[in-house]
């Protein structure tokens, strides 16, 4: 059952990952990739071969990220990503009321 839920979540996240209400979000994506990059020490030892996190957010006037919803394949990965995102302050001047969607895939090499 857990595998079925994960597969459905992945399919749902893939369909949403290309959707964004912003007009030009490439600089924002680049900045977010830098934020959510995890070092080897930050990854859980029992990590699966592939872990996925999908979250929707908006950017507050002070540049902080307000996470609205998050889907994830592992609680440990969710905690690590949330820690990074909650501490981040974006330099990008795209502070709007728009909702953005961001998908991160972690691969175990």
Structural class: alpha+beta
| Helical residue percent band | 25-40%
Side-by-side strand order of the widest sheet? 2-1-3
The N- to C-terminal Cα distance equals 27 Å
The residue ranges in which pLDDT falls below 50 over 5 or more consecutive positions are 1-23
- Total helices: the number is 3
Mind telling me the C-alpha Rg?
14 Å
Overall form? elongated
Number of domains: 1
CATH class term: Alpha Beta
Describe this structure in words.
The model is unreliable at 1-23 (pLDDT under 50). The radius of gyration is 14 Å and the shape is elongated. The chain is an alpha+beta fold and 109 residues long. It starts with a helix and ends with a strand. 37% of the residues lie in helices and 24% in strands. It has a 3-stranded antiparallel beta sheet, with helices on both faces. It has a single domain (2-107), classed as 2-Layer Sandwich (Fusion Protein Consisting Of Minor Coat Protein, Glycine Rich Linker, Tola, And A His Tag, Chain: A, Domain 2), CATH 3.30.1150.
